[in-house]
TrEMBL record:
Stretch list, region Disordered: 131-162
InterPro entries linked: Amidohydro-rel, Metal-dep_hydrolase_composite, Metal_Hydrolase, Metallo-dep_Hydrolase, OTAase-like
Protein species of origin: Phytohabitans maris
Annotated ranges, domain Amidohydrolase-related: 58-408
Protein's name according to its UniProt entry: Amidohydrolase family protein
Pfam families per UniProt: Amidohydro_1 (PF01979)
């Protein structure tokens, strides 16, 4: 039996309960078997193989990023222009860095070939579990059609097993066929661009993309495989189209209003607001090489996005957490929680990145909270994020990360031996 004990740690379990101070948490065969006050008989009853001194630390569930793009290494949100061998090595670095920062699950929202998820699951690559969306579906002239207006019909192709570029499809039949293709190649859910975006070269931000019938075609195929569709939507018309088609999750939801939020709640749909990427791009606009038109689109979303999040909280929308960060480094993934906390508070930001995201991906029985019976994906940090959310945003403050009961980051030992 593989066993581990974390002793004397403060526990924020993300169930809504207050912080429990000085607890002993026991893990056996990758799952939590006991949480009890430190020194009690229940806590002392396990002959643990590994003991972590949790005194002065806070334990939270493993973090989740529901809108990752680990293969979009270009600062402009594309795959970049590295040689393929270097591209693969850099993707592996990004994946490993996410784990070190406390993220034990990533839902990749497009661009990453499913083979990377397979390699992580088999232990060939060190990183969080990855739920890949594969290639995103875009209409001609949509957010995923990356040709400048003066270019003709050729687009860089997807290379199965290496890079998942956007697939441009039009019509119900083409959407049906490409959805099946993504699932065949290993996508665990399907991503579609249902409206305009900031970085794409030709589509207005307010444009509505794909018909309801086209989106519904993907939803029908995904449901037949036991999975779902999530859609990129900034505006209300795009959100209503996606809801009409039966999607499970809306990405961004920037221009949220009460009517749309109420419908989202009634239909049990999740929303994943993303804040970090726009902060990054606006702060490093020259390095990203973005145009004045793209800057204007990003700036136009800022105020609406924060107000939309307040509406979602007020109306009870199930809000998961995603960063949408891109580029060659992709560090400080946890700053997404800091950005959200500034609008909705520390606890809601933390719950979004744990319990609610676990519900979104269909893993609430195993992940997302610190409870007996759950998989021991756990993070120990040197501050209580309910009081100081920066404890999860600064990588140096993440002392331990456990994935399935195994210690995969031990900052204290690394510091002691440095």
């Amino acid at each position: 039996m593989n066993s581990l004990a974390i002793v004397g740690v403060d526990v924020v379990d993300c169930t809504g309960a207050p912080t429990r101070e000085r607890q002993d948490v026991l893990v056996e065969n990758g799952r939590i078997t006991s949480i009890a006050p430190s020194g009690t008989a229940a806590a002392a009853s396990s002959d643990s193989g590994v003991v972590i001194d949790g005194a002065g630390l806070t334990l939270v569930p493993g973090l989740m990023d529901a809108h990752a793009h680990v293969a979009l290494l270009g600062s402009d949100g594309t795959h970049g222009d590295l040689p393929w061998a270097e591209h693969v090595l850099q993707v592996v670095d990004v994946i490993g860095r996410a784990l070190d920062e406390g993220f034990t699950t990533l839902r990749d929202a497009c661009g990453t070939e499913p083979i990377f998820a397979t390699l992580v699951a088999s232990g060939r690559i060190r990183g969080p579990r990855i739920l890949p969306s594969g290639s995103v579906l875009s209409q001609t002239g949509g957010h995923g059609d990356l040709r400048p207006a003066h270019h003709g019909g050729s687009r860089p192709p997807t290379i199965p097993g290496l890079v998942a570029r956007p697939e441009v499809v039009d019509g119900v039949d083409a959407v049906t066929r490409m959805t099946r293709e993504q699932l065949r190649r290993g996508a665990t859910q399907i991503k579609m661009f249902a409206g305009g975006g900031a970085l794409s070269p030709t589509d207005p931000l307010e444009s509505v993309q794909f018909t309801v019938d086209e989106i519904r075609a993907a939803v029908t195929v995904a449901r037949s495989w036991g999975t779902y569709v999530h859609t990129h939507c900034h505006t209300r018309p795009t959100m209503h189209n996606a809801l009409d088609a039966g999607v499970r999750c809306i990405e961004h939801g920037t221009d949220m209003d009460e009517e749309t939020a109420d419908r989202i709640v009634a239909e049990g749909v999740f929303v994943v607001p993303t804040l970090s990427v726009s902060y990054d791009l606006l702060q490093a606009r020259e390095a990203a090489g973005i145009t004045p038109a793209q800057i204007a689109k990003l700036e136009s979303m800022q105020g609406r996005r924060d107000e939309g999040m307040r509406v979602m909280v007020d109306r009870g929308v199930k809000m998961a957490s995603g960063s949408d960060i891109v580029g060659p480094v992709q560090d400080r993934r946890g700053r997404e929680l800091t950005h959200k906390a500034a609008v909705i508070g520390n606890e809601r930001a933390l719950v979004a990145a744990t319990r609610t995201t676990a519900e979104l991906i269909g893993r609430a029985d195993d992940l997302g909270t610190v409870e007996v019976g759950k998989i021991a994906d756990l993070v120990l940090t040197d501050g209580n994020p309910l009081d100081d959310i920066e404890a999860l945003a600064a990588p140096s403050r993440i002392q331990y990360v456990l994935q399935g009961g195994r210690v995969v980051r031990d900052q204290r030992s690394a510091t002691a031996t440095a």
